[in-house]
Design brief:
The chain is α/β, with parallel strands linked by helices. The protein contains 18 helices and 22 strands. Keywords: Glycosidase, Hydrolase, Maltose metabolism.
């Protein structure tokens, strides 16, 4: 557990303070691909409003809207040209207000994407900034990060972008159309606080904060050392990730904005860092910064070259052991001090989890999508579900050519690699083998998560009556065919979210791995103070696997959820498997505290002192289960 101590050794399970956003299920909407209400091929706000009942029925508590602000869409809206107006492709401010009202009317909340590490180069702040380099005459010059030209001995230009008009370069950590804001400038920070207040005053319920750990840059903006000589530009992570003033800035944001609004939630996107202690700085309640962050250690599990990779598209096989270690590390981290996780396995920057961590062949697709659902709903943290995950949407077919891929990151990486290969081999474009890059795109391009949602079996899967901005996957999986099918992935998610909501141990319980060294089984317990304990067993392979004695002796426990049909025998005794079939997963509840002296809770707690599962199972026999099993 690099650089960070696990939770202290305890004799009793610890239950964190309960908060509404901890038990919430957040559903991420990538608006352009969700639902098109007006036939222009682009998803829109009215399309989201039209589907609110669908989301409510699924069990969603909070909607996170990826950016819908005015934008040239160079990075699909993560390049904002006006923070306080809606891009006309998505609708109007009135449409947004109606969406908010209808969301609230259904008892759900709405959080917005806050993208303030950078703006679009078409934002009026940047247009003004670029207009004149004289900081006295141009008060916005210093809102971005400008430097005069500087070339090395070979005459190489910097990685920054050159602006002819003022003969200076500006810093952009992402594409050239996304200049970085200068957070050192207090006026910039005030402008950010103002736009945050604008949305909060309108009633939005919080923010997901884009690359928030990038906002503070190391003083002097030094050159990155050359660590990958074949690359024209070097990774400069150390110079801007979790930079020297980032916590000052977020504390100021909390003090001046967040703390002034009740019942909001915040989640910061914090890529690159895998060290819990570093990310805990953003999250621990005494620091008064954010409620939680997205950390990407699990998502980086199949990235070739790790965090310094040329592109996350370059794929390497992932190992279950690594997944188990990563989950265990974060689940166990600093709970008593208030560290809180965000649980997710998909978003708009990633390919589909069933294709990536499951098996999307027709035989295993539904089972492995359900297994992944179990892995998500049984972890401690706020749960995030990405649009389409609930119906087991998979990656685009391998037969699709590069033209179907629209993401700027995919296209740029392809072109850069092609250029590099042309230079190093002297071959023509046609002669160069790009099959490895194509394979990476097929497995991991961000495009897969951005395919339009498949609603029904009509043309373009009912996403639009026009021409979709991006091709729709042609498989016959869609919402309409799943919604009334009790065996579908959708129905499973719906049940699973309810099981999570009904069982606090799955949200707040202490995490303890079981069978940590088993090559294909991922298993753990989740235990609340007072004794209630869930056991989760998941087989991450297509092969049947005998399960260890400890797990077999779960007789008498209540089965909460299973992705295979399970027959009840007798009144309450569910078959306990001696073998887990391919991609089989189960969740058991092992006991509830009835509060009476004689109920056995003391015994349960004693068993934690022993920390031996078999002791716990013996005591579990003596317990009465308050609820009927509804797997
Ligand atoms: C975040 C977004 C991603 C975007 C990048 C730059 O990582 O999730 O989509 O490209 O920031 O804004």
């Amino acid at each position: 557990m690099a650089g960070s101590p696990p939770s202290r050794n305890r004799t009793k399970p610890f239950t964190p303070t309960r908060q509404w956003w901890k038990s919430a299920t957040v559903y991420q909407i990538y608006p352009i691909s969700f639902f098109d209400s007006n036939g222009d091929g682009v998803g829109d706000l009215n399309g989201i409003t039209a589907k609110l009942d669908y989301l409510k029925a699924l069990g969603v508590d909070v909607i996170w809207l990826s950016p819908i602000y005015k934008s040239p869409l160079a990075d699909m809206g993560y390049d904002i040209s006006d923070y306080v107006s809606i891009d006309e492709r998505y609708g109007t401010l009135e449409d947004w207000e109606r969406l908010l009202e209808e969301t609230h009317a259904r008892g759900m909340k709405l959080i917005m994407d806050l993208v303030v590490n950078h703006t679009s180069d078409e934002h009026e702040w940047f247009v003004e900034s670029k207009s004149n380099k004289d900081t006295k005459a141009n008060p916005k010059r210093d809102w971005y990060i400008w430097r005069p030209p500087r070339y090395d001995e070979q005459g190489n230009r910097p990685a920054w972008e050159y602006d002819e008009g003022t003969d200076e370069y500006y810093l952009h950590l992402f594409v050239t159309k996304q200049p970085d804001l200068n957070w050192e400038n207090p006026e910039v920070r005030e402008a950010v606080w103002k736009l945050m207040r604008f949305w909060l005053d309108k009633g939005c319920d919080g923010f997901r904060m884009d690359v928030i750990n990038h906002i503070s840059k190391v003083e002097g903006l030094p050159d990155a050392p050359i660590i990958i000589p074949t690359l024209p530009y070097q990774p400069g992570n150390d110079f801007y990730i979790n930079g020297p003033k980032v916590h000052d800035y977020i504390k100021e944001m909390n003090e001046k904005v967040l703390s002034r609004y009740k019942n909001i939630m915040t989640v910061g996107e914090a890529p690159i860092t895998h060290i819990p202690a570093t990310l805990a700085e953003y999250v621990l309640p005494q620091n008064k910064e954010l409620d939680m962050v997205f950390q990407f250690e699990l998502i980086d599990i199949d990235a070739q070259g790790g965090m310094e990779a040329e592109s996350p598209i370059l794929w390497k096989p992932w190992r279950l052991q690594d997944m188990k270690d990563i989950v265990t590390k974060w689940q166990s981290y600093s709970r008593e001090d208030g560290f809180w996780n965000s649980i997710f396995i998909e978003n708009h920057d990633n390919s589909r989890s069933v294709s990536r961590f499951g098996d999307d062949s027709s035989k295993w697709r539904a089972l492995s999508a359900k297994l992944l659902c179990i892995s998500q709903i049984t972890q401690s943290g706020t749960l995030y579900v990405y649009q389409g995950q609930e119906i087991g949407m998979k990656n685009a077919p391998k037969s699709w050519s590069l033209e179907e891929y629209k993401d700027v990151a995919t296209i740029n990486f392809w072109n850069q690699t092609l250029e590099k290969r042309k230079k190093t081999t002297g071959k023509s474009e046609e002669e160069i083998d790009m099959s490895d890059i194509m394979e990476g795109c097929q497995r991991k391009a961000r495009d897969h998560g951005r395919l339009p949602i498949q609603w029904d079996s009509s043309p373009h899967a009912g996403f639009t009556t026009g021409t979709p901005w991006m091709r729709v996957n042609e498989d016959d999986w869609n919402v309409d065919s799943q919604i009334n099918d009790p065996d579908s992935v959708y129905s499973f998610w719906q049940r699973a979210l309810d099981v999570r909501k009904q069982n606090d141990s799955l949200i707040y319980g202490d995490f303890k791995p079981v069978l940590l060294d088993h090559p294909t089984i991922f298993a753990y317990t989740r235990t609340l103070e007072g004794g209630t304990s869930a056991l989760v067993v998941m087989n991450f392979s297509t092969q049947s696997v005998s399960i260890n004695e400890e797990v077999k002796r779960m007789k008498g426990a209540k089965l909460l959820l299973s992705n295979y049909p399970v027959k009840a025998t007798g009144d309450q005794a569910w078959e306990v498997p001696t073998v887990l079939r391919g991609y089989e997963g189960r969740v058991y509840l092992r006991g509830e505290c009835c509060g009476a002296d004689a109920c056995g809770c003391k015994g349960i707690q004693k068993s934690f002192r022993d920390s031996r599962i078999d002791t716990l199972i013996v005591f579990a026999f003596r317990l009465k289960f308050a609820r009927k099993t509804v797997p």
